[in-house]
Amino acid sequence: MKKILPIAFLGAAALIFPVSVKTIFLDTPIENQMGTVQKIFYFHVPLAWIMMLLAVVCGVAAGIQLRRDSKRAEAVSIAAAELVLVTGLGVLITGPIWGHATWGKAWTWDARQVSTGLLWLIFAAYVLVRHYGAAGSERLAAALAIFGAIDVPVIYYAVKIWKTTHPSNDVAGSLPASMWAALWPALIALLLTSMALLLIRVQQELTDVTLDEAWVDLDDAGATKPNPAPGPTPATGDA
Q1: Which of 42, 124, 209, 229 has its CA 20 to 30 A from that of 186?
Q2: Rounded to two decimals, what is the model's pTM?
Q3: What whole-number distance in Å separates Cα of residue 147 and Cα of residue 141?
């Protein structure tokens, strides 16, 4: 089951992606004001939703790992954080492209832009601490993950709190049926791909932990193994 799920997810995503691209670029009408560049919306928004979901998953898993010292929770937090970097990079690339077409500037220091960039930096720090931190740095990394998860509602409500120029959260709810028909396949395909990569990375992390523990047990067994008693010195004949 552990091996079948990622393959099934990736297989389903491979079938949905072509349909999604066709729907976005051929079946969905071109927006009057922004033109073709508006179609980046169908990638930017799903990536942002998935990024925030993974950030929350990472923060919750890190909290569980702190409380229970769970290896599985630790593996989930590491895998989710790495995917936050991937999806977040997609958000930070597609967002300015869309913003330049809308506002005339790629980066306006909008509250949602800043909070999203902060989220990416938090999880970049988490990944660096997890992979290169000294012994005992797991608690610092977990605190970063939890702080990153807290930043998610800040991103979501930034538009309402600070009244910024970024599109409000109500835009998705007011989309016409033709745009939803393009958004759903893109979201499902990207989500399936993200879940497959998450499962693969979790299994890799658990395998690494198992190998590390096996090496430690082997070293301990070698250190406690008694040395054989020296045998009698063989007699040497006179030259």
Answers
A1: 124
A2: 0.84
A3: 10
Provide DSSP, the chain: -TTHHHHHHHHHHHHHHHHHHHIIIIISPPBTTTBGGGGGHHHHHHHHHHHHHHHHHHHHHHHHHHHH--HHHHHHHHHHHHHHHHHHHHHHHHHHHHHHHHHS-S----HHHHHHHHHHHHHHHHHHHHHHPPTTTHHHHHHHHHHHHHHHHHHHHHHHHHT-SSPPTTTGGG--HHHHHHHHHHHHHHHHHHHHHHHHHHHHHHHHHHHHHHHHHHHHHHHHSPPPPPPPPPP----
Structure tokens at 78: 């590491």
- Segment 115-160, tens digit of pLDDT: 999 999 999 999 999 888 777 788 899 999 999 999 999 988 887 7
Q: Are 90 and 213 in contact (CB under 8 A)?
A: no
Report the candidate in 56, 80, 40 with the shortest Cα–Cα distance to residue 186. Answer: 40
